[in-house]
Amino acid sequence: MTALVRHFLLFSVLGTLSLGADPVASVPSDMENAFGEEASARLDAPKVEWRAGRETVVWVDRTDDTNSRLMEFDPETGSRRMVLDEHHLTAVWGDRSGEVPTLEDPVWRPDGAAMLIANGEDLFLFDFAAETLTLLNTGVGVERHALFSPDGRRIAWVRENNLWVYDLESETEIGLTDDGSETVFNGVLDWVYEEEFSGREGRAFEWSATGSAIVWLRLDDGEIPIYHLVDLMGTHSTITRQRYPCPGDPSPKPSLHVIRFGESSAMGTTNEIVFGEPVPYIPRFGFTPGGDLWYQILDRAQENLRLVVIDATTGAETVLVEESDPFWTEPVDGLRFFDDGSLLWLSRRGGHTHLLRFQSDGTFVDLSPGPWDVTELVGVSPDARSAWYQAARPDATQRRLYRVDVDTGDTVELTSTSGTHTADLGTSGTKLLVSSSSVASPTRRRVVDSLGSNAAEVPVEHPIPRIDYADHRFGEITDDDGITFNTMLLFPPGFDESKKHPVVIYTYGGPHAQVVRDVWPRTSGIFNHILAGRGFVVFALDNRGSAARGREFEGATDHALGSKQLPDQLAGVEWLHSQPWVDPDRIGIWGWSYGGYMTIYALTHAPGVFAAGAAVAPVTDWRLYDSVYTERYMGTPEANPEGYAAGSVLDDIAKLADPLLVIHGTGDDNVHLQHTLQLADQAWRAGVRFDLMLFPNLTHGINAPGSHLQVFSAIADFFEKHLMETEAKEDR
Hints:
Structural class: alpha+beta
Strand order of the largest sheet: 1-44-43-42-41-39-40-38-37
CATH superfamily of the largest domain: Alpha/Beta hydrolase fold, catalytic domain
Distance between the termini: 7 Å
CATH topology of the largest domain: Rossmann fold
Helix content: 10-25%
Radius of gyration: 27 Å
Number of strands: 44
Number of domains: 4
CATH architecture of the largest domain: 3-Layer(aba) Sandwich
Mean pLDDT: 90
């Protein structure tokens, strides 16, 4: 395949990309239905959860644009009722000044009798019995990550990077810290911790089980270099400063602080946990049921992890578990302490991630033995006799639920149907809220007993975009080295095996992620179905490095991002070439984020293999991405210069011989625009051109009303031009 003669560099802003037709006028109904301004909200299903302190299920119904409703379902009676709506909130608030809160993301008091709600600026407490709505915040600023203490007496929140506690009895607010700033974060994660370590969506404090103590993480970003996000849309530019560590840069300086309360509302003394050595990362921490403090400490290379417990009475430290991995190791979310000194812990030390029960003497029992990965510890019964977990069984495309007796290891499968099953354990430990879906079946939610039977269907509507969904086929291919890869195909309507069809490969390729999953599609997956509806065969392959295939498969790309993954994708291309219904001259590739990187890497390191590629928000050089993620898989540039050089696409852009479309938000705070700009700089110097579409001030997800319609319409039009049109093919 020769280079395009008429290959051009096009800078475009939202709504002005010209790829042969007006992007809005030519949008078919399926694209509009999925990604139009009115349809975009339908992609997000309601958050369904247990009501705190009860065995009922709640969610916010937003089907009425003028009146969101808090709904409740009782699985015992099968009844469904409205608990509260925004009209009632307005009536309760009356003629008081200020904006009435919405029902978005309520935070429940442990007894379920009250909840916290916000209006974006202020925080309110709604008491169901009293039917009162109380404004809680007393200071200036926005309260974030508000959380009740387990005894319901206090609320902790973060404001202006300081941690505060509000005592409900005395109606007083006390600041636990006062040094929060642009560079100091108390009780809240900075950008890189939230992006790479967050198990709490930004919250960085935990209550003890009794509510008598609180521990928080303090991060000092003072030594981290600043990246400037520039807004050019006004008369004069404005700048947002972001502390963003690249590989080899200084990291955030973490410290842990704890305070214990008396029986009164008075606060005790704040104690800083003093470490005997420099601490690179503290990604997880909390309290044991007995009130001892625990934390996980991770070294800078992210090859060694320790679980440490501090005795609340003596202050003595004990290392309970140590994990070492020549590839990398990561924070463990699946852990549970037992009264006998044992604990549950997720570990891949045996080659697959399994649920282990560690004894106090350091020995352990594997509770999930077999050639599969446990993907989540769902919960443990109050009597500590049973545990529930999710596993990638019988293969990595699936997610099934299991119950195990933690004493005997006896295991029962709770979900035998194909697809993806997730669960949330109720407070009594006798019921599970199970969500299930597959490529062919939208999400349904059921409340089941602890053995997965006696199901009660939760009557909540799952949003389903009005498009034609393609027929699919899961499969496997094996390369010349005997490595097997999971694949998925989507077929156009009326697929005819006797004809040659264009193919679009959808890729991500990065560590941990999977694109070949038996789960109901969301944003990119929906677009792939639309591509199939336009006449393309869509193909996906999970290369080495992807999740749920065990330690060796996942770690094969260690210190070699890009160079070890591309051969796997090319094995997929070779298989496609062997199929009589594939036109080998009309194979395209696209992806977002890491998938955008893989797209450009494929076009520059295998020129002529692909007829066109589309990359959204791509990494172009790992030296420009954040330190925590990149060093985990690549080490530092100083220690691994060859890997960084081999993984970059900047120096190889001169090899680009096929049409490339790059789409990027100028406000991307994850993969900065500098990746694309440095690519463009190298491209023009090499005399290479590519198409470029920019979205001013939009971030990594390019998420604004109507923006996804423009993104996906541009990609679809691009592939139609270069894979469908005979004239374009003849020009090459």
